[in-house]
Amino acid sequence: MSENHAAHTHGTGDHGEAPGWTTAARMLQDASPITVPEGASAMTIQVDWEPGDPGTPPHRHSGPAFGYVIEGAVRFELEGEPERVVEAGGTFWEPGGDVIHYQDGNALADAHTRFVVTMMCAPGKPMLELVDEEELAQRKHLRAPRPAA
């Protein structure tokens, strides 16, 4: 028996099955490269959107954010990327910093959407900063083309 096989089956009994801890985790997303602000704090929140809720107005975070959709579907759009819908079981992330997060609302008109997001925050900065209309107009050229209605 090879060392790898022996290590993989160690402590599994007579059935040769891998121990639960070796198969319990499943990769959901692998984001890179990321930049975490020096001295950052982290916060994990759960967001529950009512049917059709457009979500948070355009905003940015001072550090990266990583999310997982528990139920429903999130309409997600970052500056420079096309709008997309992330359904239950899907993940999303954003780099934070200067990038505008245009949408994170409920993509469903007839059902609730719930997601969990962990956000890193630079010291002395707010976790979320709304972007005003003037800046949106100045950066309009950085937004991906809008989907045809």
Written description of the protein model:
The chain is mainly beta and 149 residues long. The protein has three helices and nine strands. The strands form three sheets. A four-stranded antiparallel β-sheet has the order 1-8-3-6, with no helix packed on it. The protein is globular, with a radius of gyration of 20 Å.
Instruction: Supply Rg.
Output: 20 Å
Task: Give start-end ranges of low-pLDDT stretches.
Answer: 1-13
Number of strands: 9
Question: Quaternary arrangement of the chains shown?
Answer: single chain
What's the SSE pattern? HHEEEEEEEEEH
Strand content: 25-35%
What is the percent of helical residues? 10-25%
Strand arrangement within the widest β-sheet reads 1-8-3-6
Class per helix and strand makeup? mainly beta
Net shape: globular
Average residue pLDDT: 87
| Main beta-sheet annotation | 4 strands, antiparallel
Q: Separation of termini?
A: 61 Å
**Counting H and I runs of at least 4 residues, what is the number of helices?**
3
Give the gist of this structure.
With 149 residues, the protein is mainly beta. The chain has 3 helices and 9 strands.
Provide keyphrases for this structure:
single chain; 3-stranded antiparallel β-sheet; disordered N terminus
